[in-house]
Specification:
Low-confidence stretches: none
CATH class of the largest domain: Alpha Beta
Oligomer: single chain
Strand content: 25-35%
Mean pLDDT: 90
Radius of gyration: 32 Å
Number of domains: 2
């Protein structure tokens, strides 16, 4: 047996299945999987049992933490090389084969202590934040852990059977202590492969971890006491500055956006500061352009690439957002009336009058309404009304008039147009992508219109609408 993969679990039912499913298909006759459970109270054991004999060894009993569990796993493992992976991490495809290739092709492989590679560090949505891990050269390892420990391989004889297991006095960084015991004699192989994927969280980036690393350097005398103290201060200040900057950034941007929108708003912590600064600069330019174009001090964020016609016919409360490439022509009897927090996605087209021979009625948009990108609204004799808190998908079109076409002796384009009463969409509706809504349509409150529907007629509140022509599919709460 060449490789043993060890997982320590405790109440890990939310993530363990995905972890095991990333490992089991990679197992072969040269590998084994060991699971050490700390006495879970949830369905962790059921998940473990569901993989049957794919797991070579498992035990469930109380332990003193993850490093105690890993020590137990090492004792039970039959492989010459030991890898550890968290129950909330995954092993990337081809990881085990990448390691086996190195083991089988390296002359004198038994003399090496450690094999490591890169790890992917992702947020809770799977977005890559950074690549972790580098070669554990003594010049850097003596100061801090630079290798990516998750799923790296440890030579069982050269490490655990020679210098001992994980020191349980360290709850967060015992892996660093284990490698540091070898000092500059740690013989390693670093491969340029991505082996595992880790999610944000955990205690490895914390004040407690910085204190442990200080104690580990002191224990192993990797640096002199003065340098050790200076390194502690350096990493502690860097950590505190990062947290302060991160907190201030999130609070500052969240407060600013909340103040603008008039409601509580939080900024995702994974968004970079550069992105937010660029966004604010863009919004500032749009605010200046909006003030000039609409001749008002109300908050109108209008991208300079947008075309605004008949600005005197636009009435809004505050926070009107018009993205790049929009075309807004408000010429009509009542104009374009917007509540607060109305946003129009890029390339939105609002043209309230289709012909100067007979101008349109106008359009009223309620509060907190979002129009998706590439939408077409208006161009008709009928009035368009959209209720509060309604959202639109992309490529939606509204047509509040219809052509006359009954006179066979006259071209349709010469027969003119008429309106059946325009279009009215209620409050708190979701209009899906590529929906077409025709003249005379009334949609009640709290409705959902499925993507691609062609809607005409009257629909009550609280229903799901879909199809061509659209019909009621079910009640919203069914």
């Amino acid at each position: 047996m060449k490789i043993s993969i060890i997982i320590a679990t405790y109440n890990a039912s939310k993530t363990l299945k995905e972890c095991l499913e990333s490992i089991v298909p990679q197992l072969n006759s040269e590998t084994e999987l060991v699971v050490i459970d700390g006495g879970s109270k949830d369905t962790t054991l059921d998940i473990i049992r569901s993989f049957g004999d794919k797991i070579a060894y498992t035990v469930s009993e109380p332990d003193k933490g993850i490093y105690d569990a890993w020590n137990k796993g090492v004792a039970a493992a039959k492989g010459k090389w030991i890898g550890f992976i968290g129950a909330d991490d995954i092993l990337l495809p081809g990881a085990i084969n990448a390691y086996l290739k190195v083991i089988n092709s390296t002359s004198g492989i038994d003399a090496y202590d450690y094999i490591c590679a890169h790890n992917e560090y992702v947020d809770f949505n799977g977005k890559l934040l950074k690549i972790l891990g580098e070669a554990p050269r003594w010049s850097k390892m003596r100061n801090m852990m630079v290798a990516a420990h998750v799923a790296s391989l440890h030579n069982k004889r050269n490490l655990f059977e020679t210098i001992g297991g994980y020191d349980l006095q360290f709850k967060i960084c015992a892996d660093y202590d284990l490698l540091l015991r070898k000092k500059n004699k740690l013989k390693y192989i670093f491969i340029e492969s991505h082996i595992a994927r880790m999610k944000v969280g955990g205690m490895s980036f914390s004040t407690k971890a910085i204190i442990e690393v200080f104690k580990i350097r002191k224990k192993n005398k990797s640096v002199n006491p003065v340098l050790n103290a200076l390194l502690f201060v350096r990493y502690w200040l860097a950590f505190k500055f990062f947290i302060l900057r991160k907190t201030q950034r999130e609070v500052s941007f969240s407060r600013l956006i909340s103040r603008i929108k008039g409601e509580e708003y939080s900024v995702d912590s994974s968004i970079s500061q550069i992105y937010l600064i660029r966004l604010l600069l863009s919004k500032f330019v749009s605010l200046l352009y909006g003030a000039i174009r609409l001749r008002t001090l109300k908050r109108a964020f209008i991208h300079p690439s947008s075309t605004i016609k008949s600005p005197g016919k636009i009435v809004f409360y505050k926070n009107l957002n018009i993205a790049q490439g929009c075309y807004i022509d408000a010429m009509s009897e009542q104009g374009l009336i917007c509540g607060y927090n109305v946003s129009m996605g890029y390339n939105t087209h609002i043209e309230l009058t289709g012909s100067l021979h007979n101008i349109g009625k106008g359009m009223k948009i309620g509060n907190n309404v979002g129009l998706g990108t590439h939408g077409h609204y208006g161009s008709g004799l009928g009035f368009v009304e959209i209720g509060d808190n309604t959202i639109f998908g992309n490529y939606v079109s509204l047509h509040p008039e219809t052509h006359n076409f009954t006179d066979l002796c006259k071209p349709i384009r010469e027969q003119g147009v008429k309106s059946k009463g325009g279009i009215k969409i209620g409050k708190d509706c979701w209009i899906g992508a590529k929906v077409t809504i025709l003249d005379g349509t009334i949609i009640g409150d709290h409705c959902v219109v499925a993507a691609g529907a062609v809607v005409t007629g009257h629909f009550p509140s609280g229903v799901v609408i879909g199809g061509i022509p659209a019909k009621i599919l079910r009640n919203i709460h069914e």
